[in-house]
Amino acid sequence: MKTTRLLSACYVLFILIAIAAGCKQDAINKPNVTNTNAPGVVSNVTVVNLNGKAALTYTLPGDKDLLYVKAVYQIGPGRTEEVKASNYSNTLTVVGFGDTLAHTVQLYAVNSSEVASAPVTVTVNPLTPAINLARRSLKVIATFGGFSLTCNNPTQENLAIIPLVDTTGKGKWVQTLGMDNVYSNAPVINSIERGQPAITRKYAFVVRDRWLNFSDTLFTSLTPLFEQLLPKSSWSNYVLPNDATLLYSYTNLPQIFDGNFNPGWPNILFTVENAGTPQMVTLDLGKAHVFSRFQINPFLEVGNVYYVRGNQKDFEIWGSNNPNLNGALDASWTLLTTCHVVKPSGSASGTETAADQAYAKSGWQFDFPVLSQSYRYVRIRSLQNWQGSYFMSMGEFTLWGN
Fold first, then answer.
1. Domain of life of the organism in this record (predicted)?
2. Can you tell me the distance from the alpha carbon of 388 to that of 105, in angstroms, rounded to the nearest whole number?
3. Which of 42, 112, 222, 392 has the greatest count of CB atoms below 10 A from its CB?
């Protein structure tokens, strides 16, 4: 009986402590003093107009319980935005404008009881927004299997370039399978879209920002160049002096054009690990081709990792039609592109996310600059592997073009 009464008393005590704790927590989340009086207004407001936005500087009111300043404004009909700045700052930036028109901004001082002051009204005249800067500089040209586009984004705003095509010729604009938006905040945006047929069609391009402002539309007719996967049946190993020394006779160059995209050991190219200078290997394609893109499938190393040891990180692709037989990388060769493999996760070597693994397994793919010259001989030159040295490992090499 005593035990029962003791347990009941403990239970009641526990409930009382919980209630007290809850009340105490509620008290912490509320201001100590409720102030229903509106704070003073901000003053001495100055405006600096920027691209698609404006920076406002002001003098704060002297209220001791001032919590923040907020700006309320419209970026378009029925599209209201609100920006807040704490009482530790005397500046805020109003953003999201898709034009250069005059916009009214109302500034409120707000105290800790969420009571706002009377508004102070200022007018901003934002400069040319990022969507229009990008649109004015947007250039689109036909390339293999699609088109390449480039534009300037000097404010490094988050932009989306939306491609559309009139597949029927009747003004019905759509995004076909594989035609994706281009998302970037780079100062210069470059992208190549593939999967388009080699026929003349009308295309349209529009630039959008994260506030759903849209630029004017660029309309153009494009005829993508025919692109195909270059057959490997005519490829062969073209051994020249200065080419890399193989680790074993069977880890040789033909392993990278045998059609096995995810091979295991030893069905790979693997060169000697003590190489002290950049290493290269040479392919004979059997006839000259104009190249559009290529893909390298790395070797899956012990531990089920790709971004390690001899797999390519920084490398070059060279082309020739009449290579010097002494093996020199001289004027008989043309540098076609320099490439750097970037892990999607950005993590250090030895750490690989699911995205890193999927990217490697599908193959590291790179576009060539728009080329007009065809080449029969190709050299892959390793500048640095994931170990930080020069030896090469590779599972498969693939080319597209015509």
1. Bacteria
2. 54
3. 392
